[in-house]
Amino acid sequence: MSHTLWRDERAIEGLPIRLVIALVVGVACLGVMMSTISGIETLNVTEVDVEPDPEVTGTGDGEVTVTVVDPKGAKIAGATVVATSGTATLDSVTTASTGDDGEAELSLSPSLGPNQNEGTVTFSVKPHAAGNYRDDQSNTELLVVKNR
Asked: Which parts of the sequence belong to the DUF7382 domain (predicted)?
């Protein structure tokens, strides 16, 4: 009798479809669990943004004050602001930390390419580790215009 079962290929006919169903259900459950977990950890996290002053600058050396704020406009102290090239070019990445007033002073020297009349400098923020702040979304950019 074992000899006939060994040659019987009908036993595996339903196996592939059962595996596919189990895989689909498992992936769906994993997706729901990951969504729930990521939602839990962001309940008390606040997104930050920057407010550059001035909002528009020319090419060449200049000072820019960047204020780190939460969505309600409250200033965030102890954050590190990182300025990098966007469509305008910086010689190097520039960083500064915000003081108690939530402001950081950056010395920037943006330049524009040939036939380029304007560009941007981008900012990212590394909030202080003790706060419940995060910088996941893009921030306000500094507009750089060609000096006339």
From this structure: 43-106
> In 3-state terms, what secondary structure has residue 142?
strand
Is 104 in contact with 82 (CB distance < 8 Å)? Answer: no
The CA distance from 11 to 4, in Å, is 12
Give the CA-trace dihedral at 17, 20, 25, 31, to 10 degrees: -170
Could you tell me how many helices (H) and strands (E) the chain has, helices first? 2, 10
The residue assigned the tokens 């006919």 is 13
**Angle at the Cα of 84 (from 82 to 88), degrees rounded to 5?**
145
The token pair at 92 is: 């190097």
Contact 88, 121 (CB under 8 A): yes
pLDDT tens, position by position, 11-39: 556 667 778 888 899 999 998 888 777 65
